[in-house]
Protein 1
Amino acid sequence: MALRAFAAELKKGSAGLLLLALLEARPRHGYELSQMIAARSGGELRYNAASLYPLLYRFEERGWIRGRWVEKPGERRRRFYRLTAAGRRMLAAQQSEWRSFVRAVEQVTGGEHA
């Protein structure tokens, strides 16, 4: 059980970085973001789309992303989010911090791939 809780905390702490990274390429909606994370991680990381929306709303309030409602015939209305200039700066800072963190963990644990 302790291992599962540890993994959940790691997953929770990395969700923001993952969202910003996926929005760097193009606008996406919440469900697409959750599906992409699962697919790109080989199923190791799974987020319910509904659990991502509080983060997306918070990022929008901070000016890191901007959302826009899109309606297409025969489809439900979706909110697409895109990265802003401030979001790109935050993404770069988070990526740098993540790399430093991984290097530090590798140095402490002696592992080549933390």
Protein 2
Amino acid sequence: MNQPKELVKLAYNALSDKKGGDIKVIDIHEVSVLADYFLIADGSNINQVQAMADHVQEVLGRAGYECRQVEGYQSANWILLDYRDVIIHLFSREDRLFYDLERIWRDGKTFIDIDQL
């Protein structure tokens, strides 16, 4: 299995463990050079969004993946975790609706079920 897909699956399961809401994977490798995949999820409050970010970093760190950069952790309205080929976006529910990344990146292929990846 290639590394970005393995990372996505580990992160997806870590978010699921923390009850991340409406977890989606967008394959953007054919429409952007930013990354191969976006992983998007939301939480019901700041504590949950931060817990999701912490758990993803812990799980991926144990698997040998290093996060290049973390943005937005303190406010936890939108936390971005940059893993080079995979960028993880964790939102509060309200901010996810406002920024609507799924619409912006609709040219990518969206996966709701990780087994489709």
